[in-house]
Specification:
Elements (H helix, E strand, L loop, with lengths): L3 E4 L2 E4 L4 E7 L8 E7 L6 E7 L4 E3 L7 E6 L4 E6 L8 E9 L4 E4 L3 E6 L1
Parallel strand pairs: 2-11
Antiparallel strand pairs: 1-3, 3-8, 4-5, 4-9, 5-6, 7-8, 9-10, 9-11
Length: about 120
């Protein structure tokens, strides 16, 4: 069973930065898309940013200009760099990896990000 291992969450003051990292528990071949989602209390899970194997990124408007996503295909690792954090960024952040060949999306357990005002 493949799991995605996330790290880097925590508590930060508004305006601060955090770096989230995601790596599968074992090597996955042909990961097409790696992405980060978040879920705030009482809200639905939403996409934050995603990156394809070719390096093409998609970042939602609410974090554009503040968050960047990158990946290391050789290490199967995805990084979400979050700058100028705001209290409304507070949520549990989940990593996802999609392998289209297997029609499967793997998920991490989630890491808490809390931004204090």
């Amino acid at each position: 069973q493949v799991q995605l291992v996330e790290s880097g969450g925590g508590l930060v003051q508004a305006g601060g930065s955090l770096r989230l990292s995601c790596t599968p528990s074992r090597i996955l071949l042909s990961i097409d898309v790696m992405g980060w989602y978040r879920q705030a209390p009482g809200k639905q899970r939403e996409l934050v940013a995603e990156v394809t194997s070719g390096g093409r990124t998609n970042i939602v408007d609410s974090v554009k200009g503040r968050f960047t996503i990158s990946r290391d295909n050789a290490k199967n690792t995805a990084i979400l760099l979050m700058n100028n954090l705001k209290p409304e960024d507070t949520a549990v952040y989940y990593c996802a990896a999609t392998v289209r060949l297997l029609a499967t999306t793997y998920w991490g357990q989630g890491t808490q990000v809390t931004v204090s005002s």
